[in-house]
Amino acid sequence: MTEPVRVIRAGELIAADPTPGMFRTKAFELPILWAGQVVTAPGAVSGWHHHDRNESSLYIVSGVLRLEFEGYDDYLDAVAGDFVHVPSFTVHRESNPTGEPSLAIIARAGGGIPTVNVDAPPGR
């Protein structure tokens, strides 16, 4: 029998599915669930990407995470304490408009490819 509960220590996180401008680390990956965190450096702007058939949930621990996405001409800012939902296949990018790093905890459900880097949507 495997352990029913496990703790993944901060030092056990591993680098995962890179997107330019973001540093993701993975705590664990199961057939339909991915969990980890992302640090976005001050002033960084990520590449455009989506998360395949995964629904993504982010909890902002610190800093500001700015989100731009296909079909929306403006941006949304999420700050410490906020949750963000990114629907599956949504082409988007994150940035950090501040002088401090941002940290977000990620959970993805759906079992798709964790991150698919793509070209910018038309007009971006």
| Number of E-type strands | 11
Structural class: mainly beta
Helix content: under 10%
Tally of contiguous helical segments? 0
* SSE run: EEEEEEEEEEE
* Overall pLDDT: 94
Radius of gyration: 14 Å
Strand order of the largest sheet: 1-2-3-10-5-8
User: pLDDT below 50 for ≥5 consecutive residues: which ranges?
Assistant: none
Shape verdict = globular
Strand content: over 45%
Q: Major sheet: size, sense and barrel closure?
A: 6 strands, antiparallel
Question: What's the N-to-C terminus distance?
Answer: 51 Å
What does this protein look like?
The structure is a single chain. The protein contains no helices and eleven strands. It is an all-beta fold and 124 residues long. The strands form three sheets. It has a six-stranded antiparallel beta sheet, with no helix packed on it. A three-stranded antiparallel beta sheet has the order 7-6-9, with no helix packed on it. Strands 4-11 form a two-stranded antiparallel sheet. It is globular and about 50 Å long.
